[in-house]
């Protein structure tokens, strides 16, 4: 009798596990509102960090520092922006795929956009890190070029949430308090 119950319990466990996996495969992603809230919760601190770093970068560009000091500060600032961008990208990845039409594509586009921003900051950091500091004019010309390139790459990576393919997501981004 015990063997029969154990076998039945084992079969029941296997059936339940299969059912759980099947249900998970059929959906289970966050609702558009929950996903939009998660995305905005990831982007809000990222935007604040980027704004702070941008302001600090502008101060470094006009400060009376040596090229070596400016280089050290700018490399650190761009590394911080790169890290903040990766953190936001990772949080959006962790938010999952919204339960809406083209949800995987939308999530992938958000992550790709932040990945491009992260990479742009990384390239700017590497460019500035590679500049010589012996000649101030040449150094600051190189910094200006690196920042101009960063700005172009940053602008090109922008994702316009008003152009989302999903009306549900567009509405969610407009309505959830985390996105205001």
State the share of residues found in helices, binned by percent: over 70%
Parts with pLDDT < 50 across at least 5 consecutive residues: 1-26
Q: N- to C-terminal separation? A: 63 Å
- Count every helix, treating DSSP H or I runs of 4 or more residues as helices: 6
Strand content: under 5%
Overall SS class: mainly alpha
Radius of gyration: 24 Å
Number of domains: 2
- SSE series: HHHHHH
The biggest beta sheet reads:
none
Shape: elongated
Q: In total, how many beta strands?
A: 0
Provide a concise account of the structure shown.
By secondary structure, the protein is an all-alpha fold. It has helices spanning 2-25, 32-62, 67-94, 103-129, 136-156, 167-175.
Question: Can you describe this structure?
Answer:
This is Lipoprotein. Keywords: Signal. The chain has 6 helices and no strands. It is an all-alpha fold. The protein folds into 2 domains: 1-29; 31-179. Helix 2 packs across helix 6 (167-175), helix 3 packs antiparallel against helix 4 and helix 4 runs antiparallel to helix 5.
Secondary-structure blueprint:
Blueprint lengths: L1 H24 L6 H31 L4 H28 L8 H27 L6 H21 L10 H9 L5
Protein name: Lipoprotein
Keywords: Signal
Organism: Micromonospora haikouensis
């Amino acid at each position: 009798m015990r063997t029969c119950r154990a076998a039945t319990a084992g079969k029941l466990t296997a059936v339940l596990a299969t059912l759980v996996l099947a249900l998970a495969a059929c959906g289970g992603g966050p609702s558009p509102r929950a996903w939009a809230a998660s995305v905005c919760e990831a982007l809000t601190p990222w935007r604040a960090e980027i704004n702070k770093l941008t302001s600090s970068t502008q101060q470094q560009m006009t400060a009376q520092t040596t090229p070596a000091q400016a280089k050290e500060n700018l490399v650190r600032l761009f590394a911080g922006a790169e890290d903040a961008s990766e953190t936001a990208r990772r949080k959006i990845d962790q938010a999952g795929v919204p339960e809406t039409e083209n949800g995987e594509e939308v999530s992938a586009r958000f992550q790709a956009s932040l990945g491009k921003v992260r990479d742009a900051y990384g390239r700017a950091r590497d460019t500035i890190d590679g500049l010589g500091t012996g000649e101030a004019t040449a150094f600051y010309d190189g910094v200006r070029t690196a920042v101009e390139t960063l700005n172009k790459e940053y602008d090109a990576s922008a994702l316009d949430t008003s152009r989302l393919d999903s009306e549900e997501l567009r509405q969610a981004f407009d309505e959830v308090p985390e996105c205001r």
